[in-house]
Design a protein that fits this description.
heterodimer; A: mainly alpha; globular; B: 5-stranded antiparallel sheet; 43% helix
Amino acid sequence: MADDTSLPGSGGGRFPATRHSAVLAAQSENVLERERGLSILIDTYWKPAYKYLRIRFGESNADAEDLTQGFFTRAIEKDFFAGYDPDKGSFRTYLRTCLDRFVANEKKAASRLKRSPGAPMLSLDFEGAEGELSRGAPRSGQTTEQYFHDEFVRSLFGLAVERLREECEQRGRDLPYRIFERYELESDPDQPLTYAALAEEFHIPSTQVTNFLAFARREFRRIVLEKLREITSSDREFRDEARTLLGVSE
Amino acid sequence: MRWLPDRTVAHLRRVAEWPDLADTKYRLLEELGRGGMGTVYLAEDTVLGRKVALKVISTGAADAETADRMLREARIIARLEHPGIVPVHDAGALPDGRIFYAMKRVEGERLDALAARATLPDRLRVFQRICEAVAFAHAHGVLHRDLKPENVMVGSFGEVLVMDWGVAKLLDAAAERIPGGATEASPSQTAEGTVVGTLSYMAPEQAEARADRIGPQTDVYALGAILYYLLARRPPFEGAAAERRARGEGAVAPASPRRFDPSVPRALEAIVAKAMSADPTGRYASAEELAAEVGRFLAGEHVRAYRERPWERAARIFARYRTPVLLVAAYLLMRTPLILYGRS
């Protein structure tokens, strides 16, 4: 076991669960815990779900909005996610299957608008999602499953970047975030800015750029893995998702 | 939340996987390649001012068993101090908890790339060096178990390096000398029925996961398969054929390398056939013996695995002693008219 090693270091290559899994929380009998879990899952998945509906089923934006609202509202009301069994596959696949089934049922019953009266409307930025859709259409030959997965990755990284920004601000370290943003998000990955150029732009020494970037990357990585922990229900699912997400080949 | 274009997402995937080298003596330069267990990066050792290859366990593979396996790989390589085995400089855990080891950065090309352009004698000399490195490992109680052209690098100065000892097996006596040493690279590989390695180059007993029959001859088989590749420029078994053979359904022997290159000498074909014998006892007894046999071919000597026909033997002897034979022939050619003239 890695813990048996005499080598220095903290984890032997493992990552502790820093937060409770949102998937398990969504199945909890504790209302507050369940709400927390559902909120994290909706944050991560609503955009991929909306775009998937638009692409896979060719829904108009109004219908896709309605179906997305309906799906997640129904998930809250009817505890959709309580039926998830980690032994049968990833939560991501389960959610997509639920979504497919939900759409089929809605179409069959033609009851898309018959949500429970008084059901809460989720605050989701459909206009923004529609704008993203026009900028990132599916690639030719890309299956809808692959598209859903890619949008999930985009959503996850987008949330991770957002959390990195918030955390840096809260800790009074917004300069590392701004350098990260400039270097990793705004510059062309094929022709990255030099550290010297960044140093000049931000009026700091190059060594500082190196340190700030290393810090921001480390934090970004931590947040991504934390988020991945949140939306998986077991160590095995976490590793499988990490392998898929980070592109590690077998 | 900001929208991230595809190429930024792809870039962030790499950023999230990059190792955290803060407070270490290494500085990350670039990614060199990815495998099942880890990713290899080019890094600079800032203390010694040299470039090294850092193998870091992948996030998706960062369970205790894989971490243990990677450390054992580093420890195994560290004890194999041989010019044909890439040296390990350092090992440990990074600040993010991931296991890594630093090894010599090898510049050059993989054996499969070299095989496409090198002459036959050059290919055979490289092959001998591989055999020597493997023989050294065997002498130290280590079986490689995943020998294939992709795991051999030929450096820019002709040095030959056997890489990727991730599924190496320690013979019992050697295991006692490795810290934390079980005989296998991971507990799951100990189990009878667990297949490790690459099917295209794998000995039948390894494909059948017959742990009790795996020994130095298992690597000798893989060396024979590498020699096959160097002659035919293709693996002995590919794709579905390799899978069928592993299930015990397909042909045991591969197609002759002469089928793909008729210029392959029959003596070399016989060496391959003996090294890749289905029965381990029918193979060369050691990697050294296999190297010596190839050496005999290169020197124009009799190859023991091949029964020559008389004219082949004559041709070989003629090729080996070409200069003295031609001198004697020229002498006889000059003397014969004089002798005949003297008699008349």
